[in-house]
Design goal:
Layout (H helix, E strand, L loop, with lengths): L1 E3 L5 H15 L7 E4 L4 H10 L2 E4 L4 E4 L4 E4 L22 H8 L7 H9 L1
Parallel strand pairs: 1-2, 2-3
Antiparallel strand pairs: 3-4, 4-5
């Protein structure tokens, strides 16, 4: 049984491990988590749960009662990026709003901070 995750966010990985552990129950099966990249954190989670994992880079941690196979030396070729949410609302736009509304030129970050704090 395998669970495939297209992203490696902590929440998705935790859910995937939970699903695999629940599926396992009393069955004698090796369970596998497939992710874009096996990070150190994911490997630690897999080891703790006694589950196996592979990634799209050729890294793997395969565990069974009879053997363990590990290869974790391949670099991540599938970097994740997410857009910044609500970039022009709240605190994230304070500096931009200050620059647009002020005709003053600033010589340091501290001056900008002071102007924002008002």
């Amino acid at each position: 049984m395998a669970d495939v995750k297209t992203r490696t966010s902590p929440k998705l990985i935790s859910e995937g491990l939970w699903q695999l552990k629940n599926y396992q129950g009393k069955r004698k099966q090796n369970l596998l988590l497939i992710v874009p990249f096996l990070s150190k954190t994911i490997v630690e989670m897999l080891e703790r749960e006694g589950l196996s994992g592979i990634d799209l880079n050729g890294n793997y941690l395969l565990q069974s009662p009879e053997m363990t196979a590990i290869r974790l030396d391949r670099e991540n070729q599938f970097r994740e990026s997410q857009p910044i949410k609500k970039i022009f609302s709240g605190n994230s736009s304070l500096v931009a709003r200050l620059f647009l509304s002020s005709k003053k030129s600033f010589n340091s970050v501290n001056e900008i901070y002071s102007a924002i704090r008002g």
